[in-house]
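Margin note from the TA: students keep mixing up input and output lines. Inputs are the sequences; the output is the structure of the whole complex. Example:
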Amino acid sequence: MREALHRLSSNRRWRYGAILLAVLGALAALAPLLAPYDPTTQLGSARQLLPPSATHPFGTDMFGRDVLSRVIYGARISFVIALFSVLLSVTIGTGVGITAGYGTRLLDAVVMRAVDAALAIPRVFLLLLVLALWERVDVLSLIVILGATSWFGVSRIVRSEVLSVRERCYMEAARSLGVGHRRILLYHLLPNVTTPVIVAATLGMGQIVLIEAGLSFLGLGIQEPTASLGRMMQSGSTLLVNAPWTSIFPGAVIVLTVIGFSLVGDGFRDTLDPRTT
Amino acid sequence: MARFIAGRLLQGIVVVFVVVTLTFILFRLAPGDPFTRMGQSSSASEEFKAQARRNLGLDQPLHTQYLRYITNVARGDLGMSFSEQRPVLEAIVARMPATVALAATALLIDFVLGILIGATQGARAGSKLDDLLSVMMLTLYSVPVFWLGLMFVLVFAYNVGLLDLLPATGSKTTGVYEYLTPLGQLSDRIRHLMLPAITLGLVGAAGTARYQRAAMLDVIRQDFIRTARAKGLREPTVLLRHALRNSLLPIITLFGLSFPILLSGAVLVETVFAWPGLGKFMVDAILARDYNVVTGAVIISACMVVVGNLLADILYRAVDPRVRGPA
Amino acid sequence: MKRITSLVAPAVLAAAAGTGGCTPDLSCEGDWCGTLVMVSAAEPPTLLPPFAQFDIHIALADQLFWRLADVGPDAISWGHESFVPKLAQEWEFSDDSLTIVFRLNRAARWHDGTPVTARDVTFTFDVYRDTVINALPRSRLDRIASVTERDSTAVAFRFSERYPEQFFDAVYHMRILPRHLLDTIPRAALRTHPAARNPVGSGPFRLRRWDTGESIELIADSAFFAGSPGVRRLLWRFSSDVPTMVTQLAAGEVDVLYPVTGLENIDRIKREPDLRTLDVESNAYAYVGFNFWDPADLDSPHPLFADRELRRAITMAVDRAAIVADVMGDAGVVPVGPVTGGHWIWDDDIRQLPHDPDRARTMLAELGWSDSDADGVLDRNGQPLSFELLMTSTSVLRVRSAVFLQEQLRQVGVDLVVQALEPNAMGSRMSSRRFDSYFGSWLQDPSPISIAESWTTSGLNAGNYGAYTNTEIDELVQRARSEFDPMAAKELWKEIVGLINEDAPAIWIYGGSVTVGIHSRFENPSFPWDEWWKNLWTFRATPSQLIERDLITAR
């Protein structure tokens, strides 16, 4: 464990990514303390579409709202959604993977066919279908919907790990007598599964940030007046010439966040995944 | 080979079957009345609605409805589109060529660019060029695809001389297109295709480049490369003939994985560029509450992915030297 | 588009088509060339006029179908002298003034060559009065007792009473339909019948091609009895959102954008050298309408909006002037009621509710609303003061106004949830009355009765989506519509509007003026106040400034 941490922190990519995420994450977590204004309060028509200045470092949008505050709160929502939906998807995926890998061959076949089918549907299409049918786009629903549609890859990874461990275990268990399979599975399974799952989870968080931004851009994600980075980019799209700050800053934050997750995920993969070393 | 194809085809059909079942479940599971979702009844009388319910089979038990749904889909009946007043399949098929053209061109750009860049990075691993390209690819990978599209629209729409060459909206010059010669029509379509395809392809290329770089590094480290070098072969020959060719095999698997991602990205790109494809249709259908279209689009897109995977699998088998041999 | 590129494009095309031989049919020569390209966000499901729900639907239909006569440029709906002949060339009142006989222009033809006859008019009246069709103007034809054929070109309208707008009602609401093509179709099937998507009319343009989701191409009728249209082709494109439409206008893919909304978009069009912006008086006003009935159970009163005091309180909480200034700048006007500035009954001394958020708060408190759980939203008996506002996703002004509105209401503790829908889906929700409130817009017609159409009992199954009724107002309307003295009529109408304002069935947000973007090569653009699309057929492209698509003659 300690060795792993050491290897991680000496990996340049992982370091940069982790620092980036730590900074952004801290900003997001401390939003109520750091944001100079309330993100939805309109400050009056005199303060609409102001370029960046001392009082408004990121300028204001067409409704007279402080862009910096909205970006911080928007980042917060993005992080929350990414974190919890990935947690949900990892939980579901691991559970399904273990069930499939450990169960009968029939169960495995059925579950994996279902997973194949779900993977055949392009992710955005599936999300749009669920969003259209459930019509609820508050933060909690988004977390659930995103989490429920993102676990398929994880389940595959977990399942293949379970299968390989199970093979080995059977051989061992055939020799030693009566030692519980389950206990062995748990002690052998977890360490092997953790690494690819962590890599998938981290990269997955980056993907979720992009997807959530895309949904907001289409008008199907977080609704006004809540600050959402994708939504800000959408309403700023007609203002790219007169007021570019309304979409450049939210865009930059998205890009930095995804870079952070990608670097950290790559770093995990480079240092921890035994298959690539 | 034929047996292989048949086997894969069967698997594909099973997958589509499961997808259709999944959409059935989702449709029934969702809150609200499936009837209003299917027929958009507005000011019809109660009697009319009751009859329509019977026609749609909504008064039957669930498993009967399911059977009916499966048989309908198998026959190609995906319901009626409320927003276009015509069968869903017809409406979707009308839009598919646009999405296929976009996806195929983007795929081409994605892989050509991605392989080139990734291979260069792999060959020059650790150099300044590699670092620079890494940063560029990472940034490109992290930029939302719709933002890239917006930037293109900005550049081309505000620089109007360029706009004539590469239009930023639509798939053809409506009003002029119908009167062009076939060659002129082709040229018109290609010019409209460029910006959306480049947008979609660039982001994909960033991902492919990362993958290709790793694959290239893997191959370069292997013994047969050392042998080739030791034999005195020139570096470009070593790289191109031996390293690159061998690193391409895993890329083909990436090919198959790209389809769902490509179609996902197409939804956003089509919206930004007003490209009249399946993705944009789906988004418009959601705003129009045309659920039959939304469901149908999911099924069709899954079919497209299955077909794409099948093609990729065939390609892989045909190319993989370990598998080739007396058929 | 720039003239330079207008030379480049054909050259490129020619080069591209080099070996193949012929270029596109750029064969138009002489005086009569031109393609006018329009664009809008909502595509009509059908081109038959009785089914039109939105102004875009009727704008298109009006290029194909004509009326018997139309109001003049001053849009007076009183009497008949200021009216302009269309399909009818002359008319005569009977001595008791209860009958008007119209004589049709013998040269008027349907696009298939058949002459327009009196039986077409009687058929049209039948269709517009049919409850199955449920045309929007149906209630406006109430006082026409019958429409009968005198001979093949003479048709008599008989009225149940004398009133000043008889002529207006006879001619303005109905676009004449071809009996010989439509009367065999059962009325219930008419809306979705192929004939509805492939209509034959008697107007200046006929339908050439309908590319669903993309465009509708109309071809001018060179033998049109009222004169040749100014352009050869009228292309109507459909785009799904305003940014795309603005880009298309700026790029020269589209010739006219009505309206150009959003201050930054107007700014952008102004900067294009080949485009012009016109500030045009408009008869459209936008409002937030309340549903008086419960969308979940249409027989029960709405839990919030059936209460007059609540509606008044919410209305007073809104600073309409601020919204208009923020969203439209100086060109915006705050409506004094469901009426726009160009209308002859407009007066800025009409009674309206003031903007008074403090009083709003007091009223809400008196009604029993308080923030018992300190979440910023008022509640009463466990129910929060929260409701949904429905609107079309394609209207930039409404989408933006809604955000300002949300904030203003939040200040007094009201939670507004915004839901945007595509226009046809929106129309469906509205006509089935499944909404709490909606952000809609009306086009006024020259008659003040259009106020009644939307806001009184007579509009209940048509435009009065919120189902607002007030018997006192109904009685006043009956008096006003029969009042021959225009001054007295105006006072009555002002009283009616004042009463409507006091009941607060809706909040009037903006209306009165729009900015139009148009390509400068069209030499005589005009956009009438009551129907901006009416004169499109007269637009002409300056022969020396023609661009590539103008030269196409459709075969």
